[in-house]
Amino acid sequence: MEHHEQDNYSAHAERDFGAPTGRDVSEALCEQVRQANEARTPLRIVGGDTKAFYGRSVEGEALSLTEHRGITHYDPVELVVSVRTGTPLAELKAALDAEGQQLGCEPPHFGQAATVGGMIATGLSGPRRPWAGSVRDFVLGSRVINHEGKHLRFGGEVMKNVAGYDLSRLMAGAQGTLGVITEVSLKVLPKATETRSLRLEMTLDDALERLAQWGRQPLPLTAAAYHDGALHLRLEGGRSSVAATAERLGGETLEGTFWTELREHRLAFFVSSDSRPLWRLSLPNNTPPLAIDGDTLYDWAGAQRWVRSDASAETLRDAAARAGGHATCFTPGVTEPFAPLAPVVAKYHRQLKAQLDPNGIFNPGRLYPEF
């Protein structure tokens, strides 16, 4: 395992960066974990609960991080922020906005109560992801409560390679099944000088062909989605670059709120009365349309596809797998929302879970019945 140490990070933060904002309740959280581990009581780790639908339901004693909040360190010059995981995403966004900066992964909130911990646990990224990176790519370090109730620190506030597992990044997308993330250090990005969104009417085939061509060119694209017979684009960068690219590509002006509505699943495609299950297909770049019955919204220049379909889970997952990707169900209550793991991958999952959570107290069954 990666080197780790029990530290006095809060004191270090106060000495170097001034008193952190918010509240530190890590001691109470550690004690609850210690007691749960001794009694082998399952814990359901809770933040804002805006993404509770994502994954399998968990039965257990609630361990809430909503009171463990606040920014502990923010250095706009170094583009680094450290924040407790119970901090609302909206609060972190406001602090970054004030310095002309942003979270590069553009994570969805799915509700006003969304927290930093939920962002890390689910690992979900927004429209900018293919051009900027995923949630995991921006994680520099973290503090984690392990199954023994010890408060450990992994990584740091600079990128560095370490031997063994990079636990901080493993936490991204693990849905709280490996430990309790209490604090995370993130790389942030400066906001672009200019932003412009366009809508170009065209066929799906033309849109995918053009996106493939543009992907090989140094264009200031930071979002691309196809729906309702039109290609939607976002350009970000310097004023002259954005203006020149917009003139070259043509199309109509698109309201910038489109990307927020897409990210938060507030477009009609997501909120209509359509009762068909909602699936997310993650596919390699330049994958052609798949032979799936249903309606599809293409995001990430086609690499992420939202599908409304009555097709079986097996049909959808087979189609995605043949294309080199995978399919996840976003409709609550599904028994198996995530694609089954290959035997070799499942073996490593079991080994990792056994090492980090031998008594199975952290969000048991959230990802798969056996994890």
Automatic annotation (TrEMBL):
Top-level division of the source organism's lineage: Bacteria
Gene3D superfamilies in the cross-refs: 3.30.465.10
UniProt-listed InterPro entries: FAD-bd_PCMH, FAD-bd_PCMH-like_sf, FAD-bd_PCMH_sub2, FAD-linked_Oxase-like_C, Oxid_FAD_bind_N
This protein's UniProt keywords: FAD, Flavoprotein, Oxidoreductase
Region feature (Disordered): 1-21
Compositionally biased residues, Basic and acidic residues: 1-17
Molecular function terms, GO-annotated: glycolate dehydrogenase activity
UniProt KW Oxidoreductase keyword: yes
Name of the protein in its database record: Glycolate oxidase subunit GlcE
Native source species: Modicisalibacter luteus
Protein encoded by which gene: glcE
